[in-house]
């Protein structure tokens, strides 16, 4: 019951009241340090009150809990060294990482916690010491891997075509070799080495990605932009295309160019994932993802309706014409492709002025130009401009979240010997098995202290007034006069140099 109350207090909108009640509940906890402590019991979603404060973006409660868990090591003048407990924050030994929970939540307020102490210092330490070097090495390794795969595709086994042409539009010169003919010469053996590297890389990608899908869930793993969800779809599809190409090569099945071309496009597009390691390029990958999977997806439905309608009209208009004089609409698939090019203004309106064109072609093309080029393309540009404006206002926050997500990903997938645990074990300071992060803090000259002293002086005045009034009501005339003189002295003293205030000053000094 107590643990449930703590979780409810974290969700309270009145944060000051929640902090006071939280302390009151913990004061009745008999096992404050053991495993049965109320603060360490998770709810049904596996979240402790500390993690719940981070997921909900409750920065006030998070800072309050961190202040309760910190230990002052030493202070000298304005410098103070503090040990912050990072046991639940650090993702090194956590199945459900606090950092991963923050970057995967949909609440923007939660990402503000990444800029608070000690989360900011912990992420900076991990990223600068291990994350950035490993990520740059991984990016270089992936680019070399893609160069190897591209060279294998460019020099794939082909042989001259021996059969006769069945159509005047047939332009095929080379065909795919059979498996027995593909690995004969020395150049074929070099290509075989590159192909084996490509296949092994695809298998490694699937082995690394599938456990995370099962652990997190497909919807959350692929749907979170900060976690690189679209890029995970791209790289898994790429690996599947590589395996399909391998099966088609081993079975001598024609048509391997289809999965091979898809794999080339997807593999090189995945290079954009490594832009998140750089502050200048990271926010642009977020913009591209939001535009593709937000604005462009909605726009494609409207574009498909327009293209289907006008492509059908163009095909019907030229159905009775000679395709040799105007071949852009000679069959229905070609009409769809030509209309798509017209929609994006890649080509001009096809016309042959040596022959008479149908009158309806001019009417339909005029309507198509007005709807597609003038209206819909400008609508798409306006939608993308709005998305760019929204992302630009939070690009620094998004880049920090990308760095955290990348750091957690590398920490989970790299061996422990390559990524030691950050922080200091509490046993070195007699604080148990918890892990701490040492941070040096410079105290700002005494703005907050002066406010606290002023409140203390005011409280002393109120206490003196209350005590003086009680004594006046209960005591006799002689005592009343003495108390009045003492009260007046106490009031004058409290306004300038109250004993309690000076005691606070001396104690802090």
TrEMBL record:
<dbReference type="InterPro" id="IPR008344">
    <property type="entry name" value="TRPV5/TRPV6"/>
</dbReference>
<feature type="transmembrane region" description="Helical">
    <location>
        <begin position="257"/>
        <end position="275"/>
    </location>
</feature>
<keyword id="KW-0677">Repeat</keyword>
<feature type="domain" description="Ion transport">
    <location>
        <begin position="135"/>
        <end position="394"/>
    </location>
</feature>
<dbReference type="InterPro" id="IPR024862">
    <property type="entry name" value="TRPV"/>
</dbReference>
<keyword id="KW-0812">Transmembrane</keyword>
<keyword id="KW-0479">Metal-binding</keyword>
<feature type="transmembrane region" description="Helical">
    <location>
        <begin position="231"/>
        <end position="251"/>
    </location>
</feature>
<keyword id="KW-0472">Membrane</keyword>
<dbReference type="GO" id="GO:0098703">
    <property type="term" value="P:calcium ion import across plasma membrane"/>
</dbReference>
<feature type="transmembrane region" description="Helical">
    <location>
        <begin position="359"/>
        <end position="381"/>
    </location>
</feature>
<dbReference type="Pfam" id="PF00520">
    <property type="entry name" value="Ion_trans"/>
</dbReference>
<dbReference type="InterPro" id="IPR008346">
    <property type="entry name" value="TRPV5"/>
</dbReference>
<dbReference type="GO" id="GO:0005886">
    <property type="term" value="C:plasma membrane"/>
</dbReference>
<keyword id="KW-1133">Transmembrane helix</keyword>
<feature type="transmembrane region" description="Helical">
    <location>
        <begin position="134"/>
        <end position="158"/>
    </location>
</feature>
<keyword id="KW-0597">Phosphoprotein</keyword>
<feature type="transmembrane region" description="Helical">
    <location>
        <begin position="296"/>
        <end position="318"/>
    </location>
</feature>
<dbReference type="GO" id="GO:0005262">
    <property type="term" value="F:calcium channel activity"/>
</dbReference>
<protein>
    <submittedName>
        <fullName>TRPV5 protein</fullName>
    </submittedName>
</protein>
<dbReference type="InterPro" id="IPR005821">
    <property type="entry name" value="Ion_trans_dom"/>
</dbReference>
<keyword id="KW-0040">ANK repeat</keyword>
<dbReference type="InterPro" id="IPR036770">
    <property type="entry name" value="Ankyrin_rpt-contain_sf"/>
</dbReference>
<dbReference type="GO" id="GO:0046872">
    <property type="term" value="F:metal ion binding"/>
</dbReference>
<feature type="transmembrane region" description="Helical">
    <location>
        <begin position="192"/>
        <end position="210"/>
    </location>
</feature>
């Amino acid at each position: 019951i107590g643990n449930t109350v703590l979780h409810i207090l974290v969700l309270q909108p009145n944060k000051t009241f929640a902090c006071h009640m939280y302390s009151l509940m913990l004061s009745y906890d008999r096992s404050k340090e053991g495993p049965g402590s109320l603060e360490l019991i998770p709810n049904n979603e596996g979240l402790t009150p500390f993690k719940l404060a981070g997921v909900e973006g409750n920065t006030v409660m998070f800072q309050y809990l961190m202040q309760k868990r910190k230990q002052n090591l030493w202070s000298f003048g304005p410098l103070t060294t503090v040990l912050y407990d990072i046991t639940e924050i650090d993702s090194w030994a956590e199945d459900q990482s606090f950092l991963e929970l923050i970057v995967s939540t949909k609440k923007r307020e939660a990402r503000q916690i990444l800029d608070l102490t000690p989360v900011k210092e912990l992420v900076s330490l991990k990223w600068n010491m291990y994350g950035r070097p490993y990520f740059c090495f991984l990016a270089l390794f992936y680019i070399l891997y893609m160069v190897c795969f591209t060279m294998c595709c460019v020099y794939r086994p082909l042989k001259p075509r021996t059969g006769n042409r069945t159509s005047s539009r047939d332009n095929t010169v080379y065909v795919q070799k059979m498996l027995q003919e593909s690995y004969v010469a020395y150049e074929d053996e070099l290509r075989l080495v590159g192909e084996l590297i490509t296949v092994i890389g695809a298998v490694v990608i699937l082995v690394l990605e599938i456990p995370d899908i099962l652990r997190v869930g497909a919807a959350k793993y692929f749907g979170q932009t900060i976690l690189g969800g679209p890029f995970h779809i791209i790289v898994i599809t790429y690996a599947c295309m590589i395996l399909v190409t391998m099966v088609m090569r081993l079975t001598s099945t024609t048509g391997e160019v289809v999965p091979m071309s898809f794999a080339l496009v997807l593999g090189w597009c995945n290079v954009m994932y490594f832009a998140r390691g750089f502050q200048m390029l990271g926010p642009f990958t977020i913009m591209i993802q939001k535009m593709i999977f937000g604005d462009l997806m909605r726009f494609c439905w409207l574009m498909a309706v327009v293209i289907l309608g006008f492509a059908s009209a163009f095909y019907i208009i030229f159905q009775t014409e000679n395709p040799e004089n105007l071949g852009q609409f000679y069959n229905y698939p070609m009409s769809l492709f030509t209309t798509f090019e017209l929609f994006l203004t890649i080509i001009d309106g096809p016309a042959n002025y040596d022959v008479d064109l149908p009158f309806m072609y001019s009417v339909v093309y005029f309507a198509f130009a007005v709807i597609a080029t003038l209206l819909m393309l400008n609508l798409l540009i306006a939608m993308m401009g709005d998305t760019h404006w929204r992302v630009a206002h939070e690009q620094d926050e998004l880049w920090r979240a990308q760095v955290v997500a990348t750091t957690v990903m590398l920490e989970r997938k790299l061996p422990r010997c390559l990524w030691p645990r950050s922080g200091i074990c509490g046993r070195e300071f007699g604080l148990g098995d918890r892990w701490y992060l040492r941070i040096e803090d410079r105290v700002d000259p005494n703005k907050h202290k002066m406010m606290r002293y002023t409140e203390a002086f005011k409280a002393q005045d109120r206490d003196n007034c209350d005590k003086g009034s009680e004594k006046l009501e209960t005591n006799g005339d002689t005592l009343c006069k003495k108390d009045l003189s003492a009260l007046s002295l106490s009031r004058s003293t409290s306004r300038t140099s109250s004993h309690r205030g000076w005691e606070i000053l001396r104690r802090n000094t």
